[in-house]
Every structure is written in structure tokens, then in C-alpha cells.
Amino acid sequence: MSQLSLLTGVFGREAASRVANVGLPELKGLVDKSFLHRNSAGGFRIHELLRQFVSAKLKASPTALKEAETRLREYYASRLQERVPDLQGAGQKAGLDELAPEFENVLVAWDLAVRDQEFDALSKMVEGLWLVCELRGWFNEALGAMHRATLGMRDATDVSSYLKASLLACSGRCHLRLHQLEEAERDLKRARVEAEPAERPPLYAFVLNNLGLLELQKSNPIQAQEWFEQSLKLYSSVDKVWGVANVVNNLGDALQVQGRAAEAQDHYQRSLRIFRNLTDQRGLVTVLRNLGRLRESQNEFEEARVCFEECVSAARDLKDRYMLSRSLRDLALVATKTKEWELAEELLDESQTVAETMGDPLEMAHCTFAQARLKQAQGHRDSARGLAREALRRINRFSDSPLKPKILGFLDNLNR
């Protein structure tokens, strides 16, 4: 039983068997003795005081400890690697439901690989770990893991370019999600240098795609389009359909910002067809949200509502906080324009709560500004002004955000 002490938080029966050589009958016996707790989903958790006690016993046997740590690292490295195709397609929800509850142990395995400089294990884990964090909105957790790995291999001479580029690319992506543009640009440019386009086209295409997203966030849609087109060419050359769908959607964004709405819609529809074929819920949410925003900009509010409601439903199903907060806010803006005041308030309250739990200051600013617009629509100018000023205070740390001039223009109109 002492080897179970390596498993922190929730773990499954397979992890207990593979890491600690404890089978289901033994697990049931430990539950009966109240040494383990079993949750409704079938996961196990060892009581903390007991874990500390048996952990001390395990540490007294360095050989047994090392063997158990190796099994834990190899087990979770294999699981993450095996689940990557599922996380990009039909098995997305099942993969998340399997990996997310045991994420504490995933991080334990990751940190063991960092400590022991097991770079092959990190190479197996990096994409799967990033995908879980991307789909659950755990960007700070992913950044922490990538940073620890980067520090751990700082003095090593046998680290592959693939691992270096992957860590930098995933870090850059997470910084983008948190609108930390300087950090994103730094990591993505370094990733581009490390990546080998001939040897790892999908990784290089991923870097180019995110450089395009960076330019979009910097309000440079033409430069963004150039990066996206290069990324699309690479993804297409190796028939990486998931990558193609993502880049085509992003190209739609770049075209929409340029005022080319019809072309943008064509790209969104193409991306939507691919994601539906892949049964990729996250991809569907992303494209439907863009289609909804396009409909909303054309005052097609009912069509926009249908898109956003599907986004909210799918994001809830995936427990995807990043897309849930944004889709709720989008739906609230439609409710504001159709004068459904109570519904708009409820949606914005939930959106703000989700953004706060995620620690996403930019999204919190967006939510506060949406609340200001709601108050203005209701005729409450003083409340609208106060909320807009609060949104401006939140956004000041993001000097390059396109939201800032919108808030300033809104305040200027209120003060006339």
C-alpha cells in the first residue's frame, strides 16, 4: 500500500494497478476500512494523514521508491501521448473526463520527469498536457509546468529541438490566451527558431498559426493572414486535418477584421464542416462563436443566438471555462440588443464568475464593459459610466488591447 502514497488527489483503478501494483479487490478492501475514499465517478483518494504516514515508509526504501516513481512517470506519459488523437476529435470529452480528474498526478509525473531529466518522457507528455489545459482553461497551470521543464533542462546538452520548440510553442499559446503579448511573442519567436519545418511540419505549422493569432491580437490582420496561410500550407502538406480546421477558422477571423465578411463566412463554414466530421466539440464551439459574432454584427440576432446557445451547451459539457465565459458574454450581448434585461444580467454574472475562477483579467474587463453596455441600454447612464471606468481600470494593464479604445469611445459618448 505504501506505493499508493505517490498518487495525490484522485486516481483511478488502472493507476493504482500500474503504479502501486494494487488491484481492485485490494482497493475495495481499503475503501471498506476507510483508508481510501471512492467518489461517484469511481475515482479513489487516499486520506491525507494516511498518505503522509505510508509515504514515510516508502521513502525508507529508496529502491522501491525509485521503481514506483518510474512506473508513475511512464504510466502518465503513455496515457497523455495515447490520448492526443482523442483530445482533437470524437474522444475529446471522454479523454478530458479521464485525464482532468487525475491532473494532479499528471503534474507529479511531469515534475518527476523534469527532476530526473527524462526528456523522452517530457516529449511524450507535452502535447497532451497542453491540450488538457487548453480545453479546460488551465493556462496558468500549463505555464507553470512548461516553465519548470525549461528550468530543469537549462544546463542539459541532450535536449531535442522538438522538446524545446514544443515547450516554447505551448507557453506562447498560453500567454496568448492570457493576452500576455510580449511573453507570447518572445516564446513563439524562439519556438520558430527551434522547430524543424522539414522534420516536424505540424509543430512548425502550430507555431506559425499562433504567430498569426498574435498579430490578430495586435490588430494586424494582414500580417496575421500571411502567417495563417503559411501554416495552412504546412498542415495541408501532411494532411493534418485538425490543424487545417483551426487555421481556416483563424483565417476567417483575419478576413472578418478586414471587412471581408462574405469570405470570412466561407472560411467559417469550411472549418465547421471539418470539425463536425472530426466530432471536435471545442473546434465546433470556436467556429460557431465566430459565426454567431458575424451574425450579430449583421443584426441577425436570432441566428446569432442559436450559435451562441450551442456554444454555451458544448462548453458546459466540456467544462471549458475559456469558451464558456466568452460564449455567455456573447449571448448576453444578444439579450441586451433584444432588451431581455434579466436574462442579460444573469448571463453576464455567470460569465464574470467563470472569468474570475480562471484568473482571466482581460475577460473580466470584457464582462464589466458588457455590463456597462447593458446599463446604458437600460437608460442607467451613471451605472454605465461607473462600470465602464472599472472596465478601463482593468484593461489598462493591456495597453495594446483593442477593447481600450472601445471603452474610451463609450465613455466619451456618455459624457456628451
Would you kindly provide a written description of the structure presented here, covering whatever features stand out?
This protein is mostly helical and 416 residues long. It has a domain at 1-60. Helix content is 77%, strand content 1%. It is built from 21 helices and two strands. The chain has helices at residues 13-20, 24-32, 48-59, 62-87, 92-99, 103-115, 119-136, 139-152, 161-177, 181-194, 201-217, 221-237, 241-257, 261-278, 281-297, 301-318, 321-337, 341-358, 361-377, 381-395, 403-414, and strands at residues 36-38, 44-46. A two-stranded antiparallel sheet has the order 1-2. Helix 9 packs antiparallel against helix 10 (181-194) and helix 15 packs parallel to helix 17 (321-337). The protein is globular, with a radius of gyration of 23 Å. This is Tetratricopeptide repeat protein.
